[in-house]
Fold:
Amino acid sequence: MHLQETRRWRKSSASNPTGNCVELAELPDGGVAVRNSRHPTGPTLVYTRAEIAAFIRGVRAGEFDDLG
Structure:
């Protein structure tokens, strides 16, 4: 299965109106795929649920605020 064929790609409602954002999709094995919304057929990164959960905890804790 190609990652572009995953069930449903989602992006944040706060994403850039020009399309500069990332999209995420749940994979059948429980992983999470991440891609650049401007290049939907380009490279895709795949993370485990635990990796995504750790990242989200870091975002919520403000660990990446200096990057925004």
